[in-house]
Amino acid sequence: MAPPLRKDAEEHDETGTSATATRGTATKRTGASGTSRRSLLAGVAAFGALGAAGCSRVPTAAAGVEGGDLLDRLRAQGVARLGIAGEIPFGYIDTNGKLTGEAPELAKVIFKRLGVDRVQPVPTEFGSLIPGLNSQQFDVVSAGMYINPERCQQVIFSDPDYQMKDAFIVRKGNPKGLHDYADIVEKKAKFATGTGYAEIGYAVEAGYKESDILIVPDQVAGLNAVEAGRVDVFAGTALTVREVVKKSAKTEATEPFAPLVDGKPHVDGGGFAFRPTETKLRDAFNAELRKLKESGELFRILAPFGFTRDEMTDMTAKELCRG
């Protein structure tokens, strides 16, 4: 979930999104809790074929339509296509072939309230979510994507529906005493994290040499690397780490912590991404999201996927886009 470089985006609109929107990264993480990566990818592949065969690309917003016309078109066609990355618990196809995860389940509720009856998954690799969104392969990124300045230069975000700290997978008893990135550097621990994860940047900021980081596909591979002794520690989100170690007799999760960015504790937040032209859809989505937060329904939707009340947030996309 390219590491999250900490430069500010230029000329943000009211959400903190750059008007230029010229580049994007794939900085985040993946999540798993009991499903093997192989079975997960099998489901993704099957639904990927369905999505490709059953849905043509939606044209870009009509020229001169301020705020975009995608919401109207989605209401007319009755379905919104969700870009997902096969990440438990954020957005995935379960073993029964059903689309689920915190982001798709939330999307189902919000789009229904917006007059769009159905959602359809379009699985892809995490690093392809932003390019796929901007090339019309789907209508919204529904993958719990972290909101950061680099991404805000290429897409616009809803306000975050959750906030998240980091945690480590370590061997039982945490023999090296690894509790944050500074410990990894000081104790010269062998460190791993996932492809495109924000944790790459946090480790580098703490002084870890990027070329020494073992990059693995996801937290399942990270768990395996720790169990096999190939690395001392794997970094991911607190949620995915605590879920993936549940069935491991050799490892444990450390306590969640906020990594340091520019010397200050930083908490990430994840939300939905939209094409920069589609501010009407983003604003309507945000309005429904606020209602869910105020009523407490948001927590009830996210709790089955391992989220706690500590991971609910009032942060805004504007704050996170500023870094």
TrEMBL record:
Pfam annotation, one family: SBP_bac_3
Cross-referenced SMART domains: PBPb (SM00062)
Region (Disordered): 1-34
CDD domains documented for this protein: PBP2_Ehub_like
Bias-annotated ranges (Low complexity): 16-34
UniProt KW Signal keyword: yes
Entry annotated with the keyword Signal: yes
InterPro entries: Ectoine_EhuB, Solute-binding_3/MltF_N, TAT_signal
Highest taxon, organism lineage: Bacteria
Keywords: Signal
Compositionally biased region (Basic and acidic residues): 1-10
PANTHER family according to UniProt: ARGININE-BINDING EXTRACELLULAR PROTEIN ARTP (PTHR35936:SF17), MEMBRANE-BOUND LYTIC MUREIN TRANSGLYCOSYLASE F (PTHR35936)
Name listed for the protein in its UniProt record: Ectoine/hydroxyectoine ABC transporter substrate-binding protein EhuB
Originating gene: ehuB
